[in-house]
Amino acid sequence: MSRRILFLGPPGAGKGTQAAMIASALHIPHISTGEMLRDAVSRGTDLGKQVEGVMAAGDLVSDDLVVAIVDERLSQSDANCGYVLDGFPRNAAQAEALNDAVINAIGTVVLLKADADELVSRLMKRAEQEGRADDNEETIRRRLQVYDAETAPLVSFYGDAVHQIDGIGGIDDVFSRIMLALVAF
Ligand code: ADP
To answer: Which of 25, 55, 124, 151 is the 20 to 30 A CA-CA neighbour of 32?
Structure first.
């Protein structure tokens, strides 16, 4: 089983939840660019100040900034034995940068799927519970558009490495589907 795993899927598909569970089960780090960026915003760092407005609008942070964060994170020793990447790459330029940065960067791609109505209803529910700055109706719509335009094309970029997983159902059911796909690969 490859331990260099990438999660792809639209906002609300459950990437963050499932990526964390898979990383913990395999004892490898969960590397989420969204979490790292939100952390920078909440700590008020220079990076946080630069990205806050872009994130609140649902647009992508510049490739240079995100690629630098990921490069730095992947160079830490705990990533030597593998990692689960969540939220990166998000467009073709980032996918190329990842390929350049690490030889055989990605072993397996998990594509989590859910239909648009389900995604919006999950994200609106999360808005009430967690109060994330980008979980409002307008920004959610924008994030879904950005996903379709920029990130969805990466499915063909990764070709045969991609496993499509149905993201509808209980958290544990979806987790089992992903584990089965990873073990079989
Ligand atoms: P979601 O998948 O629910 O939209 P994430 O937590 O992955 O949430 O990302 C939240 C926001 O952080 C994105 O809308 C974007 O502004 C920024 N972001 C995260 N990862 C990247 C990336 N790889 N490239 C550019 N921007 C990113």
So the answer is: 124
- CATH code of the domain covering residue 70: 3.40.50.300
- Active-site residue flag, 141: no
What's the distance, CA 73 to chain centroid? Answer: 15
Give CA–CA dist 58/181, Å, rounded. Answer: 31
For residues 26-46, give the mean pLDDT.
97
Active site residue 38: no
Give me the DSSP letters along 149-173. Answer: IIITTHHHHHGGGEEEEE--S-HHH
The bridge status of strand 30-32 relative to strand 4-8 is unpaired
Q: Is the CB of residue 43 less than 8 Å from the CB of residue 149?
A: no
Q: Which domain holds residue 34?
A: 3-184
Per this entry, what is the length of the chain?
A: 185
151 touches ligand 1 (CB under 6 Å)? no
Report residue 150 as tokens.
């920029």
Residues 101-117: tens digit of each pLDDT: 775 567 899 999 999 99
Tally of domains within the chain = 1
Helices first, then strands: H and E counts in the chain: 9, 5
Report the chain's C-alpha Rg in angstroms: 16
Q: Which residue has the tokens 């939220």?
A: 87
d(CA 142, ligand 1 centre) in Å:
12
